[in-house]
UniProtKB/TrEMBL annotation:
Source species of the chain: Paraburkholderia sprentiae WSM5005
Protein's membrane topology: Multi-pass membrane protein
Protein name: ABC transporter permease
An annotated GO BP: transmembrane transport
InterPro entries reported for this sequence: MetI-like, MetI-like_sf
Chain segments annotated as transmembrane: 29-51, 207-228, 240-264, 285-309, 345-366, 386-409
GO cellular component: plasma membrane
Amino acid sequence: MSAVTTQQQDWHLRELKRSLRNVNLRKQMAALALIAPLAIFIFLVFVMPVASMISRSIQSPEVVDALPDTTAALRNWDRKSAVPDDAFRGLMLDIERNGGNNSSGTAAGRLNGQKAGFRSLFYKTSSALPFGDDDSALPAHEVRQKLIEIDRRWEDPGYWQAIAKDSSRYTSQYLLATMDYRRNSVGDIVPVDPGASAYREVFKRTFVISGLVTLAALLLGYPLAYWISSLPAGKANLLMILVLLPFWTSILVRISAWIVILQGSGLVNKALLSLDLISSPLTLLFNRTGVLISMTHILLPFMILPLYSVMKSVPASYTKAAISLGSHPFGAFWKVYFPQTLPGVGAGGLLVFITALGYYITPALLGGAGDQMVSYYIAYFTNVALNWGMACALGAVLLLVTLILFGVYRKIVGNELKVG
């Protein structure tokens, strides 16, 4: 009887465990069903575009697609010895096969950026082909001579080295260019010429402007958030509505307003002139000053909101207790209150800095030629130069820097929480 009872208990226990697993499984499936639309949305509008951008920054298929035989013949060429005859033969076959279609024009434009005169050479050769009814039967050395007769530039190894540099569908030249490096004619990584160095300075300028805007937003936003957090709930809510009010206005409208305010006959210069603080109008537009003022105004709410949320959670009794124990009010603020608001400072600073890194409209409208940030060049390569590889490389580097900054912030915050 005891054995039967034990078996029944084991059976009931197994059934109970099975029922619990089924219940947990149903709950997990229900949770997954709830978050599935959001996960799909994030994957489609964020993960896929970012992955596409990163992959496009290392792709260079234009020349390989237009000149498959030529690039295949040059793939194992050391770029120092004589150009192999098979490359000449492959070039003839590729040009005849393309017949001057769009892929040929794209490849010619791409190669022209590496070797000046390639576009005219390509089209001149294309117009002179075919040599005969059955060019495929011509020996490679004869094709070499015929191409050189069309244009002596085919004797220059530089043109073939340009093709050889793009003999793969994947390239590092875009990412190297963002750091002002390039591959020379034999494939070694070298710095670009001093006069052609640009992007390193652009990234430095972007970080400097973003850092100054973050600092200005912190200096203006911290006392304002502290004041709002000390007010009664009704007044604090009203002031927070005023802080959020710029979000309801278009950025273009706000920038246009700053153009009116900062121009030579604007409100700022008129006020300073009327107070005899200046003798002539200040130049506040189309320079770094106008960019910093406008970006600080636009991004200030992003600093105030995290600060306010943290400050509201800090009990005022802590500071009062420190003062009652003999501490100076400023000492109590600096040693007791301020350290507790550092998470808000970090979150607001990170939010403002990362947002400022990608700004485009404000520097484009209020800044000069020396105030344009990385986003300006991304837009230029996307819309004007149609060099999407370079645009994606700049975007990928900017994304990498943002992720590094976020990782450093998380590391610092994590260490502070462990110490606390």
